[in-house]
Design brief:
The complex is a heterodimer of chains A (368) and B (321). Chain A contains 16 helices and no strands. Chain A is mostly helical and 368 residues long. In chain A, helix 2 crosses helix 3, helix 2 packs across helix 14 and helix 4 packs across helix 13. Chain B is an all-alpha fold and 321 residues long. Chain B has a single domain, classed as ABC transporter involved in vitamin B12 uptake, BtuC. The longest helix of chain B has 29 residues. The chains are: A mainly alpha (368), B mainly alpha (321).
């Protein structure tokens, strides 16, 4: 039995150490391909935060990752691993697309937007519903079914975008552009007074929605009866069953909330940036959510900074690739993998050492 | 007849990497280590094999490098999930990303071809082997073409893959190593009580998994094609995982599952947008692509028999203190 660590070590220091190790290894890889890691880090930070335009992009990516991070985190609390965020986001995009394509020339954006939010959440939740009900009622392993559903989602979207929703064969697999009613405002008005010129960066009001949703997720998990049941099931399914909590129902609702959160991610690129439905818009964000949730310790207060860090990596990494052609954006995929490895799978590697340093010595009676 | 044999030949070609990866997963999962990092290990192996063969000009060094890299990735997974008792799913996801990022990054910076490795010549890769008498016998009706086209004419790794099916069966069900491997996957505490190291048995299983994934990757980059291409595994690791579940973690069934999924992919390649014979309908390509996954979900749901995974799968083993 390892002594419990003080909270600031468990939730603050340990994730920092884990991420630091991941970056250290990335630095070695940068050296290995013959570039200066400090120069690379400088360019990356500058590319992510250097000016309003860069910051706008960083927060734009962060918005996406907040949603997918929350999606993974909600499922984690219930002891479920939703690896299907990518597919749920993709199908969520179909929900956004259908709302926009049917309403954009009839309604103004402020009426289309709430409908699109509902569409995204519903479609994402529906895509999570099948794996959830199979887990709850038939015991099929949710990790495997959600992986399969990612691939099925991708096939569905290719079918839809090369068939029913395609505008014309010459333009490739994408829908028509949304009219004005299907486009949402950028955030110039919010950051402009602060002296930041966001330029043409796609940061939009979905960012604010992400912050509101983060707060709602906190309320859901720590301030509601359902959240209590959810966390009980995650910590000890047997205790939950003994207390008479309806497990099948909790699994299904949790997964549908998770899917809805992942689906809402689609609002950001589809409505906020591209203003049309096209292939591959989630760009792996569903998987970034895993890294974000692990790093943020599945708490909204941790997920938001973790999402901003990954937003910075995506944006800074793109700028870095311009200056150092040897370091492509694939570097970020690797860093993401290292963060998942050290903050997730190897999270206990440093625990014994930290516990020797910080944990209060237990008295005889407490040590069991 | 010719069309059918071509289709089956294509089936075998598509099935080989699936089969190797699927058997790889079989070793790992039977020992209680869930592995969704098959994809990453295959990709890492494919890149290492392609790069080493291009630089040294030797396909044998290519295989060596491919297997070595894949085993290293497998050991990282083992270190995380056996020694550190971390979450095996998380570790597998991490391996997939590290391999995807690193192979593309290094490929781009070493060879400057957008993540590709240089084209290999025929001597630097595994080329089809003609089995003895293939030409002479091909004139015999029915059996001749089957022997000459379908059975003969694959590369060495393909034959190794099919030989590995009985070998794996024998190792798992007829050797002491296999008994212990399956035992740590079902009831590690019992194995521990018998005085056998659970960790060591699992590490060996994970290494077997690494070797086979490395071969699967090697087959892709220096067997089927003449070099590595970014993300060339294209989800095959996950199809192999699906096949493993479909086969209910049994070696011979794994071969049939991989051949079935290989056949689906062969049909997809052969009849893109063209009407299928006999039923005469055009199926959307995407349906064929999604079919392995849909079938696996239906199986998992318990509508075609029941797939019961090894009992201790995914659960880190810790001695009671």
């Amino acid at each position: 039995m390892i002594n419990p660590l003080p909270r600031w070590v468990d939730y603050g220091l340990m994730p920092l150490i884990n991420v630091a190790v991941a970056f250290l290894i990335s630095g070695l890889v940068v050296m290995f391909v013959g570039e200066n890691p400090f120069q690379a880090a400088y360019l990356l930070v500058k590319g992510a935060f250097g000016n309003g335009y860069n910051l706008g992009y960083t927060l734009f990516y962060a918005t996406t990752f907040i949603f997918t991070g929350l999606a993974v985190a909600v499922a984690f609390h219930g002891g479920l691993f939703n690896i299907g965020g990518e597919g749920q986001a993709y199908i969520g995009g179909l929900g956004v697309g259908l709302v926009c394509l049917s309403m954009d020339s009839i309604l103004p954006w402020w009426l289309t937007f709430p409908l699109a939010v509902i569409g995204a959440a519903l479609f994402g939740a529906a895509w999570a519903f099948i794996p959830a009900i199979l887990q709850a009622k038939r015991g099929s392993h949710i990790v495997i079914t959600t992986i399969m559903f990612n691939f099925i989602a991708s096939a569905v979207m290719v079918y839809v975008l090369t068939g029913p929703l395609q505008k014309s064969a010459s333009l490739g697999p994408r829908s028509r552009d949304f009219a004005e009613g299907g486009q949402i405002p950028k955030l110039d008005w919010l950051f402009g007074p602060l002296g930041l010129d966001m330029g043409s960066s796609p940061l939009n009001i979905v960012f604010l929605l992400a912050l509101v949703v983060s707060f709602l997720v906190w309320v859901l998990i720590w301030r509601t009866k359902f959240g209590f049941e959810l966390r009980t099931m995650g910590t000890s399914p047997r205790a939950a069953a003994y207390a008479g909590m309806p497990q099948a129902r909790i699994i299904i609702i949790t997964m549908m909330i998770s899917g809805a959160l992942a689906g809402m991610m689609a609002l950001n690129p589809v409505m906020g940036d591209q203003a049309r439905l096209q292939l591959e818009f989630p760009e792996g964000a569903g998987f970034v959510g895993i890294a974000v949730a692990l790093m943020g310790r599945s708490h909204p207060a941790g997920i938001i900074p973790a999402a901003i860090l990954f937003g910075a990596l995506y944006q800074g990494g793109a700028e870095l690739a311009f200056d150092m052609p040897n370091i492509t954006r694939d570097m970020i995929v690797m860093i993401q993998g290292l963060v998942i490895l050290f903050a997730g799978a190897l999270e206990n590697m440093f625990r014994p050492a930290l516990s020797r340093l910080f944990a209060p010595p237990l008295t005889q009676g407490e040590a069991t | 007849m010719d069309t059918l044999i071509q289709l089956l030949d294509l089936t075998v070609r598509s099935a080989v990497p699936l089969l190797l990866a699927c058997l790889a997963g079989l070793y790992s999962e039977r020992s209680g280590i869930v592995d969704i990092g098959l994809e990453g290990k295959m990709l890492g192996g494919a890149f290492a094999a392609g790069a080493a063969a291009a630089v040294t000009g030797s396909m044998w060094l290519g295989v060596g490098a491919g297997v070595m890299v894949s085993v290293s990735l497998a050991l990282i997974h083992g270190f995380a999930s056996i020694t550190n008792r971390g979450n095996q799913i998380v570790s597998g996801v991490a391996i997939n990303f590290i391999a995807a990022g690193l192979s593309a990054l290094l490929g781009n910076s070493w060879f400057n071809q957008g993540g590709r490795t240089p084209q290999l010549t025929a001597e630097q890769r595994f080329t089809p082997i003609d089995l003895p008498l293939a030409d002479t016998l091909s004139s015999i009706p029915v059996l001749g073409p089957i022997y000459a086209e379908l059975i003969s004419g694959h590369n060495l790794i393909a034959y190794v893959a099919f030989i590995m099916v009985p070998v794996t069966w024998w190792v798992l069900f007829r050797t002491r190593f296999g008994l212990r491997l399956r035992a740590v996957g079902e009831n590690p505490a019992a194995v521990d009580t018998a005085g056998i190291s659970v960790a060591w048995a699992r590490y060996r299983a994970v290494i077997c998994c690494g070797i086979l994934c490395g071969l699967a990757g090697t087959y892709l980059s220096i067997g089927l094609s003449a070099g590595f291409v970014k993300d060339m595994t294209a989800g095959r690791g996950f199809i192999a995982l699906a096949a493993l579940i479909f086969a209910k973690w049994r070696p011979v069934a794994a071969m049939w599952a991989c051949l079935l999924f290989g056949f689906l992919s062969a049909v997809e390649i052969r009849y893109q947008g063209a009407p299928l014979p006999i039923i005469d309908v055009v199926l959307p390509v995407q349906l064929m692509q999604a079919l392995p996954y849909i079938l696996t979900v239906i199986l998992l749901a318990g509508f075609i028999g029941k797939a019961i995974p090894p009992k201790a799968g995914g659960v880190p083993y810790s001695k009671e203190r």
